[in-house]
Amino acid sequence: MANKGPAYGMSRDVQSKIEKKYDDELEDRLVEWIVAQCGSTVGRPERGRLGFQVWLKNGIVLSRLVNSLYPDGSKPIKIPDAPPTMVFKQMEQIAQFLKAAEDYGVIKTDMFQTVDLFEAKDMAAVQRTLMALGSLAVTKNDGNYHGDPNWFMKKAQEHKREFTESQLKEGKNIIGLQMGTNKGASQAGMSYGRPRQIIS
Fold it and tell me: Cross-referenced SMART domains, in alphabetical order (predicted)?
């Protein structure tokens, strides 16, 4: 936003720790997915954290990405014809992506803040959000995901089990191994060392 000078002292240490969390290999995977998902019209960024940030900064690529995860006719974000050049319009576009990602199912703790991307404060958080979005898209398996499904971890899904009354009654008669067993329990042969010597 405003021109900021270099950080010093503790601020500099904190910022350098945040920057070390950024993963270059993950960047390559995310770029491959975004290009596969949106098509080659989105282009490719220059390699590195700042190249990735500049590519996503105006929010258009992110908006196209989240729109591509929805079927035609139900796209959540309206994308302007010309990329926004004014700062607040770019930040608004990023905010629309964040809202659409949350509606898609990304949880709040996986979301980045607008300034994390716009001012490159925490690009690792941007990577986390995109990874969460990709994992959800693979898990939903609704035909809108494009790319290699092995790029993302599938999220665990609920697997309900139904038991009959007779099965539940049978379960009450079994002692679970978590409670231990007393088969063959005996104190025979146990010794606790030498007995205490009492000398009078």
Answer: CH (SM00033)
Under 8 Å CB-to-CB from 128, ≥6 apart: which residues? Answer: 110, 112
Sign of CA dihedral 147, 152, 153, 157: negative
Rounded average pLDDT per 10-residue block, the chain, 200 residues: 65 74 86 91 88 91 92 85 87 93 92 90 91 91 84 77 85 71 67 74
Which whole-number Å values give the CA distances from 127 to 36, 86, 101, 136, 154, in the listed order?
17, 24, 13, 14, 17
pTM flag (> 0.85): no
How many CA atoms lie less than 13 Å away from 188 in the CB half-sphere?
A: 3
